[in-house]
Design goal:
heterodimer, A: alpha+beta, 8-stranded mixed sheet, 17 helices, globular, B: Trna Endonuclease, Chain: A, domain 1, 6-stranded mixed sheet, 7 strands
Chain lengths: 426, 231
């Protein structure tokens, strides 16, 4: 029978440092965390607004940011998104100051009034490709907050894919986490198997590039500078084909079934795809496999081609398809484990949220079906692929479970990169 | 016809139409204008003045009378000049119309004929606006007084709430202490388990439904709770 420590039932706390949002809060929030944008604004201390607000803070975070914003050209410089690519540069002092502020904001917001409170058990989740110095910095930040406010009894840091696996209640699985800039494939068997991680230099932003090219082809080249509009168009019309060649044939034959007019919300702009509805399949396919010859013409026109890059000692593959990447990752684990890993493939992140419109069943598929088809094509049949439920919250939920369950005497160890860093002792 | 007879005819004419006769002391007017007024009436909110010319005068004199009467419109709502009908040849109608002065001809047999109606003075419009502004200011003043009263009520209630919050905080602390004390007593009575042991002990999940869905039947709880013990 599972047991839960009474103190942690009240004071377990989770932090998910996502690329766009920071999800945080104690276990008492229940099913959903609190959310603020993972960003901070550095106000101009000479500005009238700064003086009017009576502010003394160097960095503003959370819902107060709009109060300090000024219509200035240097707005972009003053608004800091510290984790745009999951990794923060060691010497980026502004970014670390923002991370300190958002961390403090969350812990102070939920500071309990009970007398038995002696600090939270905090589990923070960051990208699995985060270097060691990011762990050191985050520990320093929590220690500093504890010294200032006595809010942290113990802190630990886990990779986001492990948190996803925990929230999905799968102890042996492969987690595919696809973000804005890259996709990480992480095999997990009770522990994250770090040596088996495969990273793709491809994410939501690449799907945006091909979407922008399609908009140009349709005669809406003037709109592609608006990144948000491109993303909205991608999410509204993009489709994942079961088989790209067959889907293109179908699209050119059954033009009306794929015809779509996209109306930009809140504007009078309408994008009519006319007879070119088949192009919708190019968007989804590119996320899973950019190797089809049809994409050559786009690269020749100047669209960035996903390239292999080396960051630290890790290679980020550009053109490897998703199924190949899963196989590559699984093959780096012990042979007896491999069948179990294939049985539980979890897709996490907004880059896997593809819909199948009515009337296009069989031609268009969801992300899980696409992965099953691709794995089958490579001879791997006994696979089970699932999409995370509530993908926005699953990392935070995994953090809460970790905070609740890991015992006090399992202290932090830099070799295994796990355990509690204890700050307050009774 | 005599001056007094003409005056009486005019009084009769206007009073029969509901006008109320005023005496000069009832209105505020620079002293020098009173010699240009022979009769004053009130018609609802309007003040009406009449200058009577009983005798023959020259065109120049009539023009001078009209000039003064025109200035009088600054203070009076409607101004008439009454002339004996036998001198009507002297009258330049356009002069009356352009200056906004009304013309009354009084015939030998006492008949009153309102030939040109007077144009209402712009002073009335100003007065109405002025009255409206005064009323508006009064209403605003009343509103401010009401808000001030409400504000002081609210400020008092906020103070009361602060006091209550302080009391709740103190009570919460006492409940927490009592609860901890009860737990300790329970452990001791159950068979000599030390207080320290109780503080570090884990508790079983009494009712799984109280837990968030991701904690219910999650195999990771077992896996993670064994961390550090399996190696």
């Amino acid at each position: 029978m599972s047991t839960i420590d009474a103190y942690r039932r009240k004071y377990a706390y989770g932090e998910d440092y996502g690329t766009s949002d920071f999800k945080f809060g104690p276990i008492t929030l229940g099913e959903t965390p609190d959310i603020i944008e993972n960003r901070g604004y550095i106000p101009d201390t000479s500005s009238i607004m700064y003086k009017l607000m009576g502010a003394t803070r160097k960095v503003v975070v959370g819902p107060e940011i709009p109060l300090y914003l000024e219509a200035r050209e240097d707005l972009a410089e003053r608004m800091i998104y510290p984790m745009r690519n999951g990794i923060v540069d060691l010497n980026d002092t502004k970014a670390w100051e923002v991370i300190y502020e958002i961390t403090k904001y969350g812990l102070l917001k939920y500071k309990p009034k009970e007398r038995d409170f002696k600090g939270f058990y905090v589990t923070a989740a960051i990208s699995i490709i985060a270097p060691k110095y990011m762990y050191e910095k985050l520990f320093e930040i929590h220690e500093r907050i504890n010294e200032e406010y006595g809010l942290v009894r113990a802190v630990t840091i886990i990779p986001q894919p492990l948190a996803v696996a925990i929230a999905q209640k799968k102890t042996t699985c492969v987690v595919l986490e696809s973000g804005h800039g890259n996709t990480q494939i992480s095999p997990i068997s009770m522990y994250p198997i770090r040596r088996a991680i495969v990273t793709l230099n491809r994410g939501g932003s690449d799907a945006n590039y091909i979407t922008a090219e399609i908009l140009r082809d349709l005669g809406y080249g003037d709109l592609v500078q608006e990144e948000k509009l491109v993303r909205m168009f991608k999410e509204a019309v993009g489709l994942v084909p079961a088989d790209l060649n067959k889907a293109i044939e179908f699209g050119k034959r059954e033009k009306e079934k794929l015809r779509t007019v996209f109306k930009v919300p809140g504007t009078r702009i309408e994008i009519d795809m006319g007879d070119q509805g088949w192009m919708r399949f190019l968007i989804g396919e590119y996320v899973f496999n950019p190797n089809h010859e049809i994409y050559e013409s786009y690269w020749k026109r100047g669209m960035p081609r996903p390239r292999d890059v080396k960051i630290g000692d890790r290679i980020f593959y550009g053109m490897m398809d998703m199924a190949e990447a899963v196989i590559e990752a699984v093959q780096r684990t012990p042979i007896e484990l491999q069948p179990y890993l294939y049985r539980e493939i979890i897709l996490s992140g907004g880059n896997f949220a593809w819909k199948v419109p009515q009337g296009l069943e069989g031609v268009a598929v969801d992300a899980a079906t696409k992965m099953r088809i691709m794995m089958k094509e490579k001879g791997i049949e006994n696979v089970s692929v699932s999409l995370t439920k509530d993908p926005q919250y699953s990392v935070w939920r995994g953090c809460i479970v970790y905070s609740v369950a890991v015992p006090d005497d399992y202290t932090w160890n830099w070799e295994r990169m796990e355990g509690w860093m204890i700050f307050t002792k009774e | 016809m005599e001056y007094s007879s003409l005056i009486n005819n005019l009084k009769e004419y206007f009073t029969s139409r509901g006008f109320q006769i005023l005496v000069k002391g009832e209105i505020q007017l620079p002293e020098e204008f009173f010699e240009y007024i022979d009769l004053l009436f009130r018609d609802a909110r309007n003040i009406v003045a009449i200058k009577l010319i009983p005798d023959l005068i020259s065109k120049d004199q009539l023009t001078e009378v009209l000039t003064k009467a025109a200035v009088l419109r600054e203070y009076i709502d409607k101004v008439y000049v009454a002339i004996s009908a036998k001198y009507k040849a002297l009258v330049n109608g356009r002069l009356f119309t352009s200056s906004g002065i009304g013309l009354i001809l009084v015939s030998e047999d006492g008949e009153i004929n309102e030939v040109i109606p007077p144009r209402p003075s712009p002073r009335r419009t100003k007065e109405i606006i002025h009255t409206e502004i005064v009323n508006e200011i009064k209403a605003l003043r009343d509103e401010i007084l009401r808000l001030k009263r409400q504000y002081s009520d609210l400020a008092r209630k906020v103070e009361e709430l602060k006091e209550l919050a302080k009391e709740v905080e103190e009570l919460r602390g006492r409940v927490s202490e009592l609860s901890a004390s009860l737990e300790r007593r329970e452990v001791i009575s159950l068979g000599g388990v030390s207080v320290r042991e109780k503080e570090e002990a884990t508790v079983s999940i009494p009712n799984k439904e109280e837990l968030p869905s991701y904690l219910r039947d999650n195999p990771w709880l077992q896996v993670l709770s064994r961390r550090g013990k399996e190696r």
